[in-house]
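Worked example

This section walks through a single chain of length 241. The input is the sequence exactly as stored; nothing has been trimmed or padded.
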Amino acid sequence: MLPIRDSVHSYTFSVINWLIIALNTVVFLIEINLSPVALNRFIQIFALTPANLHLNDPTTLFSNPMLLIPLITHMFLHGGWFHFLSNMWILFIFGDNVEDRMGSIRYLIFYLAGGVVAGALQTFVSPFSEIPSLGASGAIATVLGAYFLLYPRARVTTLIPMIFVPWFVEIPAVIYLGFWFVSQLFSGIASLGAANAANMGGVAWFAHIGGFVFGLLFARIFIPRRHPAFLRQFPDEYYPW
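Given that input, the structure is written out below as tokens.
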């Protein structure tokens, strides 16, 4: 299912959301213009490789805190065109509304914190994996968790591929995002039972799970208290609290 748009109108220009998309775009363009050897080196440095954090010996992080930098840089890397475009499209649809509620600075902190938590959970689940983890999916999952909480009455126009004719349907946000989260949760649990799961490649399911749960639990902390006169300009159908 491909989301096309949501029903919530943003009342402010989403400066940070656009800057995040722009930064991801610049980094991706750098990636695709590197030679294979240079790209491999680039990923080794800036992607998140769980084994490099040495969770079995935390004192290593105290002696070399630079090892923690990939917890931030990994969320601006992507593994290919589909990975990049799908992440940026989801962020484009849902991120502006979350920034609209939080304000730009709070949204930036929220986004980065969620991405760090997502990466940390994936590392905790697979602490000895030497496979680099990269992508904005964990941070974007944080945005989706916040959207789930903040806009439960919104609707998402979704494209469902058919054999001959595309089918567009409006799905309540709580159902669309709830289904997405449950699918990530089941996939993550299934991956734990796979042979050598810690060293398997593919989707970082627990980064998605951790990001979404972080967004769901902490979004309200990032919502500023506003005067009731300000709130009256927003339609009540989208704001239950």
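What to look for: The two ends are 29 Å apart (CA to CA).
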